[in-house]
Amino acid sequence: MIKKFIRKILGVKDERDPTQAHILGPEEHGIDPKLVSPNAIRLTQTLQEAGYKAFVVGGAVRDLLLGVKPKDFDIATDATPEQVKKLFRRAFIIGRRFQIVHVMFGQELLEVTTFRGAGSANAPKDEHGRVLRDNNFGPQHEDAARRDFTINAMYYDPATQTVLDYHGGIADIRDKTLRIIGMPEARYREDPVRMLRVVRFAAKLGFTIEPTTRAPIPVMAPLIDNVPAARVFDEMLKLLLSGHALACLKELRSAGLHHGLLPLLDVVLEQPIGMKFVTLALESTDARVKAGKGVSPGFLFASLLWHQVLEKWTAYRAAGESPIPALHLAADDVLDTQTENLALQRRIATDMRDIWAMQPRFERRAGRAPYKLLENPRFRAGYDFLLLRCESGELDKEIGEWWTAFYDAEAGERERLVTQANRPTPSGEKRKRPPRRSRNRSGGGEGASAAPANSAAGAGEE
Ligand code: ATP
Ligand code: MG
Q1: Crossing angle of helices 272-290/297-318, nearest 10°?
Q2: Of 299, 403, 276, 294, residue with least CA distance to 356
Q3: Residues 134 and 279 grouped into a single domain
Q4: Which CATH number fits the domain that encloses residue 377?
Q5: Which of 6, 139, 180, 254 has its CA 20 to 30 A from that of 308?
Q6: Kind and range of the H or E element at 103?
Q7: How many helices and strands in the chain, by DSSP H and E?
Q8: How is 20-87 classified by DSSP, letter by letter?
Q9: What's the gap in Å between 338 CA and the centre of ligand 1?
Q10: Among candidate residues 175, 196, 215, the one where a domain is terminated
């Protein structure tokens, strides 16, 4: 008793037997059964009636304990993937590195995993210790120990409404603490993506990262370079679309994890103008995600990398290249580096290039040019991007306001706006415009740069 009391004062976690779960009834855990997907209940029931163990597990239990409706439900069972597949009409075994079963109920997809065993000490690994495959099955307590964080290692049985907690997850949920299970160094070595997951969950849940969980991250961060780029990209996308992207990026920086994920992101974030732009872009992304609206990954990555493009664009122009080809050269450079590091999918890279390529065209407001731009199928994304540039102070606000008015206007009003935009000011010059692009628009916007402008933008719209 006294020992327990002293341990509590010192903040030392109770050392309990990790093979024994702490079992909590409905009054203790307080989960609202109405938040549990009826399909998850059906699925666990079917498995249990066939004689297997079956639980809701992972993020869904964590969210249920936090009173949040889970976005999806993962199921853990002692049935093998083949045994699971036999019980359901629409069930598919997927994955190589980590075999799981996808079970479909109408539109809802449930992921069923078989309990993983501790035997994975012998699992195949790469030369850095990263586990390449983990399909060793084992008892439930070993499965719990293989999970990443204490708050992600709880099992909920809808039939008995009990929660099984092997690693003190309930206490950590209540203390808002993110704690890795086992030895942090070893767990990050097995799977470096866990370091990114630490950041994402801490930011998304507003939890504090427990010090020993956090300590090795800056040192071990380079191990992420050995993870296949596609997997890092998936995790980055989850992070950026979590509705807490801004908090995640701040956390990535403070954990020393931003290097190599988005090369130069650290430099970008340190420049006041770049920081403002990225902050605005992420704020608007977070607001959209929270409002349940769609977010385009292309727009997001175009925003994150814009200041790299801008820097290179300026350099190419200073070297004598005309604006549009210079922009394409800059985009090529940035996309080449990113495709290597981030495995940017082609579709996303095309979206990014379209958004960037449209930018100089917003500065041409003479003749038919603005009407043509309005017809561009990606106009809306390009225009939203322009507004971010204005808001961040990179461009004169006037140009954004003009496009907003032009976009909203009736036909007659549009003619008036075009005339007004091209009317000389009392000082004899044309209307105020960002000084660095003024060369570009002289001659009514249909000058020497018009041909490359059209062909370049056209190329981006394929
Ligand atoms: P989200 O709300 O993002 O879906 P989640 O916790 O459900 O969060 P998933 O990626 O869906 O995350 O994974 C489901 C569960 O599988 C986790 O809760 C965790 O128990 C386990 N898990 C996932 N990835 C890892 C990993 N890299 N290492 C160890 N366990 C993992
Ligand atoms: Mg999940």
Answers
A1: 160
A2: 299
A3: no
A4: 1.10.3090.10
A5: 254
A6: strand 100-105
A7: 24, 10
A8: S-EEE-HHHH---GGGS-HHHHHHHHHHHHTT--EEEETHHHHHHHTTPPPSS-EEEESS-HHHHHHH
A9: 26
A10: 175
Same domain, 162 and 288: no
- 149 and 267 fall within a common domain: no
The two structure tokens encoding residue 152: 């992600």
- Read off the pLDDT of each residue in 433-455 and give the average, rounded to a whole number: 34
Q: Say what the pTM is.
A: 0.79
Which of 63, 114, 152 to probe ligand 1 with, by most ligand atoms within 8 A of CB? 152
Does any domain span residue 224?
no
User: Among this protein's residues, is 354 annotated catalytic?
Assistant: no
**193 CA closest ligand 1 atom index:** 27
In a domain, 219, yes or no: no
Known catalytic residue at 72: yes
Q: Is there a domain that residue 153 lies in?
A: yes
Is 276 found in the same domain as 169? no
**Ligand 1 pocket, mutate which of 102, 148, 239 (most atoms under 8 A from CB):** 148
Q: Which of 151, 175, 199 is the last residue before a domain boundary?
A: 175
Position with higher pLDDT, 15 vs 440: 15
- For residue 176, CA distances in Å to 56, 435, 461 come to 21, 51, 47
pLDDT tens string 184-223: 999 999 999 999 999 999 999 999 999 999 999 999 998 9
The single residue of 134, 143, 148, 354 carrying the catalytic annotation is 148
Q: Residue 107: which CATH number?
A: 3.30.460.10
Kindly state whether residues 165 and 31 are assigned to the same domain.
Answer: yes
Q: Are residues 166 and 278 in the same domain?
A: no
Give the number of the ligand closest to the Cα of residue 98: 1
Q: Which domain holds residue 303?
A: 262-456
157 lies in a domain?
A: yes
Read off the pLDDT of residues 310-351 as tens digits, 9 standing for 90 and up: 999 999 999 999 989 999 999 999 888 777 666 678 888 999
Asked about 286 being catalytic, the answer comes back as: no
* The total number of structural domains that make up the chain: 2
* Confidence band of 2 (pLDDT split at 50, 70, 90): low
